[in-house]
Amino acid sequence: MKKLLLLASLAFLAITTTSTTASAQAGKFVKAASPFEKSTTGTWIGIDRLFYKLNAADKTVWSSVDGTTGWNQIKSGIWNDKNGKWIKVEGTKLMWSADQGITWRDLPEGTWEAGDGKFHRFNASWQLLVKK
Q: What is this structure's pTM?
């Protein structure tokens, strides 16, 4: 009986040690993946069902009915997130307003939820990213 307990304890110890070591070694080489990836279209959908895109060079916002043709510049540079908050680019940051542009604040984490429920943000080069 003592031998059986001893063997069971050794087996448990061996399994636990092997698992921990493998996890620690794997952790050394694994880089945490970002939940965001570069958008394939560079566009997002507004609550008004229009497609929007940002010209990274001059930070102008454009809209289109179908997302491929007929792009028109949005003079105000403002679009709405899924909850109706206004969003705009100001300098090097995204700003948002919950009171139709009376007061503006930094957009938390630079992330907004588009009309289709997908979360978006821009990277440092102002390329559109979408949450996986």
A: 0.73
